[in-house]
Design brief:
Two copies of one chain form a homodimer. With 306 residues, chain A is of the alpha/beta class. Chain A has twelve helices and eight strands. Chain A has a single domain (12-299), classed as Aldolase class I (TIM Barrel). Chain A is globular, with a radius of gyration of 18 Å.
Chain lengths: 306, 306
């Protein structure tokens, strides 16, 4: 039994709820309510928060307040507030708002990339070949996403070698870390082991993160494989914010509380206060005004009777 | 990386939805509707189904139709229909109804045992010391449960050596298998590894099953540890039937579809047809007339667009 013999002391959590979660809400959440959520996350000890996306309001009206939101949030020592930037205009907006970190986004599936950002993968790479060096020249860090690594809603299976090549390309452009996404939440542990084995044959573990969706309840089992293989950064969304457009009522993002609950009980620290994180989940639920699916969020931290 | 190097070809699923799930429903489900669910489970390939409990209707009115239900279900080649028996009267009812398998139930926590079955652990063991040999003499098989192994709602942490001693006692009485339960859904992977290591130092893996609750989303991560350590039988409830009395809206039992989805995608067969199992989940939802929490149940088996 060597499964859990090499666990790390600490793991880094990259919180995507304010961006990945709120962009999928049917009703737009107001800026003040978004600020309340982000402040609650920071108060809980989250040090990496993706707060919005500098995408055209035409495409994602839910995040049309990106500039205002970013300007209202004070920079804080030890906290990285990031935002997605699909193009150079987005980068300029992020720079003007004072951001020190941005993220770029590609899909391992050609069809998903076109449907999602209206560009071919090659066209997107060409944009990022300008964007990433420009961001670096402004002193910003750039994170890269490669999505649909575990499967695509249009193409089905995706060749992991394609995801590897894109991850390498983004790293070569200057991204400090690549987050590999199971966008559909279809991944299972043997597949995860196979994908990570390929990735880790070419990329150092500290350059990779996992962004697993819990749509079919598999996220933490996949995280466990990642942990055992050396991955030390995991994306999650508070209370499981972020639905799945193909299945109303189904969950999407892995809930941050479920992930942190597992890690802390395994003796792995995250720098997060789980009680305060649970409070942040209540804030998330209050601002979106619907029940959120996170398991710990729903059940609470303890089961003591009386 | 030796995590998934010794996966089995097949795993046995023990379905507890009709008993463990329906006994927790606020509104009693009628016998005909229960029969529909059990038939749907059998049609999906479930070969081990715990259908009811021969407990006093005074304690669990939801299962007051146990005798009638058991008599209405025809015996089928290759399908084991079981029921919980708390005492000799229960065993007599099970025998009269023609059952070939029953189950007995103990808690590793003294307080939980008293609150749950109104007996001390020693008193319960004394009852089973009569019940199990009597069942065997009637040609029945007897399964044993040890619950609250991962934690107790009244006592908090539970010494796993106590659970081990009780499992050994039930095996010595003649139980063919012991199902270890995380009744509260508080367990996490390192704890699971520690508990199973102790259990497997004294008991053969093929005598053990795991009964994990998904209350905090940890069930499949714990199952993965069990798989890697040689456990080959897992309990689950269709669509996640069975709530948690301490947190309304929270999930309890691991959903059978989530478990089977993971296993099949790992190349492990269960004898179950996942599409038909998903249909059985729709039946479960229809008969309890409320939304059930299973992830695959909610999201569906595929995420293909258009």
């Amino acid at each position: 039994m060597t499964l859990l013999d090499h666990l790390p002391d600490t793991v880094s959590i990259y919180e995507v709820g304010p961006r990945d979660g709120l962009q999928n809400e049917a009703a737009t959440v107001g800026t003040v309510r978004k600020l309340r959520l982000i402040e609650a996350l920071i108060a809980a000890g989250c040090t990496r928060v993706e707060m919005t996306s500098f995408v055209s309001p035409h495409w994602i009206p839910q995040l049309a307040d990106a500039d205002n939101l970013a300007q209202l949030l004070e920079a804080r020592e030890g906290v990285s507030l990031s935002a997605l930037c699909p193009n150079l205009q987005g980068l300029e907006r992020a720079r003007a708002a004072g951001l020190r970190e941005v993220a770029v986004f590609l899909s391992a599936s050609e069809t998903h990339n076109r449907r999602n950002i209206n560009k071919s993968v090659d066209e997107a790479v060409a944009v990022f070949a300008e964007l990433v060096p420009q961001a670096l020249s402004h002193g910003m860090r750039v994170r890269g996403y490669v999505s649909t690594v575990w499967g695509c809603p249009y193409e089905g299976d995706v060749d992991p070698r394609r995801a590897l090549a894109l991850a390498q390309r983004l790293l070569a452009l200057g991204c400090y870390e690549i987050s590999l996404g199971d966008t559909l939440g279809v991944g299972t542990p043997v597949q995860t082991q196979r994908i990570l084995k390929l990735m880790l044959s070419e990329i150092a573990a500290d350059k990779l993160a996992m962004h697993m969706h819990d749509t079919r309840g598999q996220a933490l089992a996949n995280v466990l494989i990642g942990l055992a293989m050396g991955i030390r950064t995991f994306d999650a969304a508070i209370a499981g914010l972020g639905g799945c457009p193909y299945a109303p009522g189904a969950s999407g993002n892995l809930a941050t509380e479920d992930l942190v609950y597992m890690l802390h009980h395994m003796g792995i620290s995250t720098g997060i206060d789980l009680e305060k994180l649970w409070d942040a989940g209540r804030v998330a639920e209050a601002i979106v005004r619907r029940e959120l699916p996170g398991r710990v969020h729903r059940a609470g931290l303890r089961s003591l009777a009386g």
